[in-house]
């Protein structure tokens, strides 16, 4: 029988306080949830704003919402954004936020305004949930999380920012309209 590795997390208690390393309990997954072993997490500008006190977050928390990792455990039916099953051993990235899918905003195509929105790297550690930040050895993926499988040839350093930085750039391009090719090329 394989031994289950201990979870270690860099816990943020607030601006001015040093991170402390903690061993939170391994979460008991509910149906539709997964546990991912984080292989790399890039640091986003919002992480820096939180660390410096320019942005308030619930504490204690585990920062980091741009991770990539390998699925270690799955409970029930977990699907990626393409509808394919997520299995142990899959390399994945995930969206920065997870919505309920059923509230007023979610049913009107505004999941980012969900009445019970949860954000990776921005949630307080609780006994029922966690850690849900990438500055840890493992991340608890909540039910309804948009998960994307990462192709084998794509390096972690390229895949990690997909859930936030790359998504932000894609949204800006979408709002800005189609970029026309340079007529001089």
Write the layout of secondary structure elements.
Blueprint (H helix, E strand, L loop, with lengths): L8 E3 L8 E3 L10 E9 L3 H8 L14 E9 L15 E4 L2 E2 L19 E2 L18 E4 L5 E3 L6 H4 L5 H12 L9
Antiparallel strand pairs: 1-2, 3-4, 3-8, 4-5, 5-9, 6-7
Structure description:
With 185 residues, the chain is α+β, with helices and mostly antiparallel strands. The chain has helices at residues 45-52, 156-159, 165-176; strands spanning 9-11, 20-22, 33-41, 67-75, 91-94, 97-98, 118-119, 138-141, 147-149. The strands form three sheets. It has a five-stranded antiparallel beta sheet with strand order 8-3-4-5-9.
Radius of gyration: 17 Å
Mean pLDDT: 87
Percent of sequence in beta strands: 15-25%
Instruction: Enumerate the strands of the largest sheet in spatial order, edge to edge or round the barrel.
Output: 8-3-4-5-9
Q: Helical proportion?
A: 10-25%
Shape, principal axes of CA atoms: globular
CATH level-3 fold name: Quinone Oxidoreductase, Chain A, domain 1
Q: Class in CATH?
A: Alpha Beta
CATH superfamily (homologous) name: Medium-chain alcohol dehydrogenases, catalytic domain
Order of helices and strands: EEEHEEEEEEHH
What is the compact description of this entry?
This protein has three helices and nine strands. The protein has helices at residues 45-52, 156-159, 165-176; strands spanning 9-11, 20-22, 33-41, 67-75, 91-94, 97-98, 118-119, 138-141, 147-149.
For this entry, give a set of tags.
185 residues; alpha+beta; Quinone Oxidoreductase, Chain A, domain 1; 5-stranded antiparallel beta sheet; 3 helices; 13% helix; globular; disordered C terminus
């Amino acid at each position: 029988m394989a031994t289950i590795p201990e979870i270690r997390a860099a816990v943020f208690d607030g601006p001015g306080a040093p991170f402390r390393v903690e061993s939170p309990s391994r979460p008991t997954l509910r149906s539709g949830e997964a546990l991912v072993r984080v292989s790399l997490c890039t640091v986003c500008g919002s992480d820096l704003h939180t660390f410096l006190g320019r942005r308030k977050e619930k504490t204690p928390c585990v920062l980091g919402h741009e991770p990539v990792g390998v699925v270690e455990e799955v409970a029930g039916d977990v699907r990626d954004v393409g509808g394919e099953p997520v299995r142990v051993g899959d390399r994945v990235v995930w969206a920065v936020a997870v919505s309920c899918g059923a509230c007023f905003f979610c049913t009107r195509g505004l999941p980012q305004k969900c009445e019970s929105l949860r954000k990776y790297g921005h949630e307080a550690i609780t006994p029922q949930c966690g850690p849900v930040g990438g500055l840890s050895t493992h991340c608890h993926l909540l039910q309804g999380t948009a998960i994307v499988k990462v192709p084998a040839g794509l390096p972690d350093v390229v895949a990690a920012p997909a859930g936030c930085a790359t998504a932000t750039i894609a949204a800006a391009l979408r709002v800005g309209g189609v970029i026309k090719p340079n007529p001089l090329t």
